[in-house]
Write a structure and sequence with these properties.
The chain is an alpha+beta fold. Among the domains are: 1-134, 2-Layer Sandwich (Beta Polymerase, domain 2); 264-404, cca-adding enzyme, domain 2 (Orthogonal Bundle), CATH 1.10.3090. It contains 20 helices and 11 strands. The structure holds adenosine-5'-triphosphate and magnesium ion.
Length: 428
């Protein structure tokens, strides 16, 4: 790859997070390449490549299952044509090509601006990144306030990457983060969702979560959850139920990633919003809704508020709603009616969800254990077990209670839900 660029007469380097992580002896996630060849020139050198992006034009070169990102050295957006800045200082377009040094200066953090030259195994450092790696310091390049204003997501990146590397954030960078964090309120929800995913699906989710709370940034990603965690903290100096639940879900995600097991954002996001959904559903039940209806409507209330901040693609929000709405059924349904749930395509996720809740809620323990056992035995024994299926009433009351009219309405609704679980809200 680099050889072919060299042979074409271009200089090229490994750069970014891959170099940083390799220097820290962490497993690099990917390597990016920076070169003085233009995107079109790179494109013509590699048949298996395509030019992507508008805000940043890049070339993706496909190697089997891997995609390598090749970026042309860029200069400061103010120094030429091809850049565009909004009235609030945000960079809208950043396609001004320049020298390697200029390229280094427009990267975000010093430790992210190290260039590795494979020809002679040297690291090129224009910004003191090597010293910061040595000292474990995370620092923005250039004027920190200006750099955060240009792209407020850098505030979140700082929190995330400092958590990943377990670095301290340098004081001026920290001050600039506090001063500009409010600009995150105006970021496109899709970009914030992308950042949230990186935050919690990189294998260091618990650390990211704690950094976000320490730096008071969590609310820019999950405002409803943040408000609830704050209330919990005011009520008691012990870690509250919701915080513990979220931490456990994040720890679970981290350990799955460590073991190379698949993870889905739906599971984590379902936990992030569970407190709000649960509370809302309980209120709706007081107005006479059945648990399933109440949970479904609670999703209609809670999700749109979250979607204003981070987008959540429907392929994740739909399973979130299914996981939620299976909770009362797993808890309440008597034995003769609950075995069919094993066939539900969200059973596994909903069961995992219940088990995690049960860790912090004694009223759920027997039911969670029952569901664990029932999966381990054969059909005859399953039938036997149904006789003593625990029916949990602590959250959703007695099963099947509620006005008759409502129950009929629920049946109709459940029919629709099965076909299109996300159909409850047209807003997603
Ligand atoms: P990760 O370990 O999450 O991949 P990373 O530093 O590699 O971290 P990427 O989003 O993969 O993060 O970005 C690759 C490189 O591109 C960064 O190291 C940095 O040099 C540059 N970069 C990414 N995002 C920005 C940004 N918002 N502003 C300036 N430079 C950026
Ligand atoms: Mg990277």
């Amino acid at each position: 790859m680099l050889e072919r660029l060299h042979a074409g007469g271009y200089s090229s380097y490994l750069v970014g997070g891959g170099v940083r992580d390799a220097l820290l002896e962490l497993q690099p996630k990917d390597f990016d390449i920076a070169t003085d060849a233009s995107p079109e020139e790179v494109r013509s050198l590699f048949r298996n490549s395509r030019i992507i992006g508008r805000r940043f034009r890049l070339v993706h070169v496909v190697f089997g299952r891997d995609i390598i990102e090749v970026a042309t050295f860029r200069a400061d957006h103010a120094s030429g044509k091809g850049g565009e800045t909004g009235s609030d200082g945000r960079i809208l377009r950043d396609n001004v090509y320049g020298s390697i040094e200029e390229d280094a200066l427009r990267r975000d953090f010093t430790v992210n601006a190290l260039y590795f030259n494979i020809e002679d195994n040297t690291v090129v450092d224009f910004v003191g990144g090597l010293d910061d790696i040595e000292d474990g310091v995370f620092r923005l390049i250039g004027n920190p306030v200006q750099r955060c204003e240009e792209d407020p997501v850098r505030v979140l990146r700082a929190a995330r990457l400092a958590a990943k590397l377990q670095f301290d954030i340098e004081q001026d960078t920290l001050d600039a983060m506090f001063d500009t964090a409010h600009m995150l309120e105006n970021m496109p929800p899709a970009r914030l969702f992308e950042e949230a995913l990186k935050m919690f699906h990189g294998g260091y989710a618990v650390r990211s979560f704690h950094r976000l709370l320490e730096l008071d940034l969590f609310g820019y990603l999950f405002p409803q959850t943040n408000a609830r965690l704050r209330d919990e903290m005011v009520e008691s100096d012990q870690p509250g139920y919701e915080k513990q639940l979220i931490e456990a879900a994040l720890a679970n995600t981290d350990s799955r990633i460590l073991q190379d097991l698949p993870v889905t954002p739906a599971y984590l996001l379902a936990f992030m919003q569970w407190g709000a959904v649960y509370e809302c559903a309980r209120k709706l039940m007081q107005k006479g809704l059945t648990p399933s209806d109440a949970i479904w409507h609670a999703g209609d209330v809670v999700l749109p508020l979250q979607l204003r901040v981070t987008s959540i693609p429907k392929r994740f929000s739909a399973p979130m709603r299914e996981i939620w709405s299976l909770q009362p059924r797993l808890e309440q349904l008597p034995g003769n009616r609950c075995l069919a749930l094993l066939e539900n395509r969200r059973f596994r996720a909903a069961y995992d969800f219940l088990c995690l809740r049960a860790r912090f809620d004694d009223t759920l323990k027997d039911a969670a254990e029952w569901w664990t056992r029932v999966q381990e035995v054969d059909a005859t024994e399953q039938e036997q077990m149904c006789k003593d299926k625990p029916v949990v009433t602590s959250h959703w009351g007695e099963p099947g209670k509620g006005p008759k009219r409502k129950r009929r309405a629920r049946r109709g609704r459940a029919g629709r839900d099965r076909k299109s679980p996300g159909s409850g809200s047209g807003k997603q």
